[in-house]
């Protein structure tokens, strides 16, 4: 994302219609203007979230990243697919679990996730295969016990997210002949009550060029937000424009958000 697009994002934020800026990547912290964007957003009293991969905190040149995030009261949401080393390393690569634990301990030292602290540290769990996530509350208790007992780690909430049948996971399903079965599973587990709280109803996703989507998954699929007869909309065109009630682009992958307990950027939608 170039500086001009970042300034466009800030111009949109200054209209006051948005209360939360949720920054994701890759590793968004490596962008040259990441800290500038955070500082300017916090000046607007916005709630800022960093979708952090944890290991970035141990990279050369990022030694002060945790302190920066804490100083500006940035909420951290980090992927932690399991509390067991062998499972994480099998999925993410050898040594990733150990580095993730080190990063979490650094964040705890700064006050993140601690009882009585305003510094929020939340973790994300995804199933490793074509199944729905387990009950979020019960799994959160397991995570807190295991990470606490083994490593002294504290965190606020665990978010469970369903795997979307798109991109790499979708390709894996196709290669194993499991794609149709997984779509059927999601459709069969659909619950209407989840529709009230799916992320696309109160979120817009902006890509690196400034184009707008109804959610991150639509962005991955190139399904642009549609508005005012246009099939592709740039954020600059939406400044001071009311988009309440604009139809949301949906496809079969949307069942991933409405199946079972539901799935959104903030975890399960229903108990």
Plain-language structure description:
It is a single chain. With 271 residues, the chain is an alpha/beta fold. It has 10 helices and 7 strands. It folds into 2 domains: 1-160, Alpha-Beta Barrel (TIM Barrel); 164-271, no CATH class. It has helices at 3-13, 34-43, 65-71, 85-92, 96-109, 136-151, 167-175, 179-188, 216-221, 255-258, and strands at 20-23, 47-52, 75-79, 121-125, 157-160, 205-206, 212-213. The strands form 2 sheets. It has a 5-stranded parallel sheet with strand order 1-2-3-4-5. Strand 1 (20-23), helix 2 (34-43) and strand 2 form a beta-alpha-beta unit. It starts with a helix and ends in a 13-residue tail after the last helix. The model has no long low-confidence stretch (mean pLDDT 95).
Number of distinct helices: 10
CATH fold field value of the largest domain: TIM Barrel
β-sheet strand percentage:
5-15%
Q: Helix and strand string, N-terminal first?
A: HEHEHEHHEHEHHEEHH
**End-to-end Cα distance:** 37 Å
